[in-house]
Design brief:
This protein is mainly beta and about 350 residues long. The protein has one domain: Beta-galactosidase, Chain A, domain 5, CATH 2.70.98.10. It is about 5% helix and about 40% strand.
Length: about 350
Amino acid sequence: MITQRIFAKTLGGQEVTAFTLHDGDASATVLNYGGILQSLSVPDKHGRLTDVVLGYNDVHCYERNGGFLGALIGRFGNRIGEGRLVIDGKEYELYCNDRGNHLHGGKTGFNRKFWEHEIRGDELVLSLFSPDGEEHYPGNLKVQVTYSFCGGELRIHYHATTDKKTAVNLTNHAYFNLNGEADGTILDNKLWIDSDMIAPTNSTMIPIGGYRMVKGTPFDFNETKEIGRDIDEEDLDLMQGNGYDHCYVLKNPRGEYVLYAVAESRKTGIRMSCYTDAPAVQFYAGNGLHQEGKHNYYGKRAGFCLETEAIPNNVNVREYAARGSSLLGPDEVYEYTAAYKFSLAE
């Protein structure tokens, strides 16, 4: 069942609608502004409902504050080096909003757009039209993102088409804290990631080619460990990101739907199993958080993100594109799924 209510009005006076997807006592709330996942409440080991997603109770905070909390990201999630996009020999200069690079769609990304909505049974379907030339991207892009929440699983399905060759890399920027969104730290959340390598970056966090094997490094999560165990090790890649903010290359061939990560909290007993058919995931440990949240202050490392995607900057690095190119032609369909299934740790 999906219910809806008026969440608030923007600074410009537009009404924002909140859609709540009910799954028994559990629920997930999504806004038509930014496609934002505003809350996600699931039972803990004592049966108490616990909101595990960071966010705001005031839409003005989503408008004013950074961090992209819970938002749908596009046209291009993550970074493109120096905003340089070349398609069939033609160069497009994208807006640079992060250390001389293009980040999360540019000046006004999909996270600040109003999405059209339709309720189809237990699914919330959000739609957006991005016109040719928006943020200097070519092509009229039609995007459809479907949310569902059933059997403890929040599922997000992404779909896009274009009338001109363009670049697309959609994701969701939810920050999770399985202790509860007001707990203040995710350093004791345990995490497993099924990945043998990351895409190393330069000093501005742009992957510029090559892979780094994680075995024997702080980036190895092939055996479950607390997020905070190695986060402050003296490691160049870690120090450049001020902690984890790196793309993990998944083992699955593109298009194969797999379990790629499991996180859990000893405090609440909540476990989150993560699935996707995308080729990579950006693990971000909330190193830059500095916001007043729903019920508490969100400081450094108060939440973590698992942003399913193609490898950042793949439009400029051929070996990354070989694992999943973000270029989309008019005769192609962009489509993939990400899911977060909640249960209790054994």
